[in-house]
Write a structure and sequence with these properties.
The protein has two domains: 172 residues, HUPs (Rossmann fold); 89 residues, Pantoate--beta-alanine Ligase, Chain: A,domain 2 (2-Layer Sandwich). 36% of the residues lie in helices and 20% in strands. The strands form two sheets. The chain has a six-stranded parallel β-sheet, with helices on both faces. Strands 7-8-9 form a three-stranded antiparallel β-sheet, with helices on one face. The chain has 282 residues and is of the alpha/beta class.
Length: 282
């Protein structure tokens, strides 16, 4: 496995690798969820293809009061996990390698990025779209694999690829969870063992609400009621949205997604669950 820290070295390295080229962008602090993405990328690439993993804590997607400086950085452990999961190349640039001092061009999605996390974190998705677009231009993958835990991000990246005609297939991978249901996240490292147990109640609430063949409004109300009973919890949002367009879900005729962001202890956790179509008029 090759570790590249500059664009020049990465491009030179990739000239000598096979195809297809499958890319997994990460911010490091890798856990079992990331490892599942890399293993899936390995399957997609086959024996002759190349799996590229980026490890880059992207400063442009953090707000002024967010945890950029404290975000966990575990590069040595990350490289071992990448190797074990089947990566061929790690791209680990510095911020200076990715962003020139006088950079003045950004990628801004202006519809799907407005609600949900976009409302709570202004500018976040501009940073995400910009860095992913740059990484696509640097790595030039055939396929890129993203986790479904960040469902809004996944939808936005798909829209960006569609609208800007990137020749990249976007593959979503199901959420990887702890045994108790808590969605795997690098920020789970901030939680105590007892907090992790209680935080699993977020998924339990979403799952119980999603089981109901009720209107989206009633489903959201039930999920909110259940999550509000959890200690250390302050709800950012709980919403039912169209799975593709992220428009508010007004009926069950289309595939939906029940999405939540919850401030739990000192951590902001996100999770989501599918709302399948239901026959009938509601």
């Amino acid at each position: 496995m090759k570790i590249c820290k500059t664009i020049r070295v990465l491009r030179s390295t990739l000239e000598r690798t096979g195809s297809p080229r499958v890319f997994v962008p990460t911010m490091g602090a890798l856990h079992e969820g990331h490892e599942a993405l890399i293993r899936h990328a390995r399957t997609l690439a086959g024996k002759n293809g190349c799996v590229v993993v980026s490890i880059f804590v992207n400063p442009t997607q953090f707000g002024p009061n967010e945890d950029f400086s404290k975000y966990p950085r575990t590069f040595r452990a990350d490289t071992a996990k990448c190797r074990a999961a089947g990566a061929d190349v790690i791209f680990a640039p510095s911020p200076e390698e990715i962003y020139r001092p006088d950079a003045s061009v950004y990628v801004d999605e202006i519809r799907l990025a407005l609600p949900l996390c976009g409302q709570s974190r202004p500018g976040h998705f501009r940073g995400v779209c910009t860095v992913v677009a740059k990484l696509f231009n640097i790595v030039v993958p055939d396929t890129a694999v993203f986790g479904e835990k960040d469902w809004q991000q996944l939808a936005i990246i798909r829209r960006m690829v569609r609208d800007l005609d990137f020749p990249v297939k976007i593959v979503g991978h199901p959420i990887v969870r702890e045994k108790n249901g808590l969605a795997k996240s690098s920020r789970n490292a901030y939680l105590t063992p007892s907090q992790r147990i209680v935080a699993a109640g977020i998924y339990d609430a979403l799952r119980e609400a999603a089981r109901c063949e009720q209107t989206p409004t009633r489903i959201v109300a039930l999920a909110r009621k259940l999550i509000e009973t959890l200690p250390w919890t302050r709800i950012d949002y709980i919403e039912a949205r169209d799975a593709e367009t992220l428009e508010p879900l007004t009926n069950r005729r289309r595939k939906g997604r029940l999405l939540a962001a919850v401030h739990f202890a000192k951590v902001r956790l996100i999770d989501n669950i599918a709302l399948p179509r239901v026959a009938g008029s509601f």
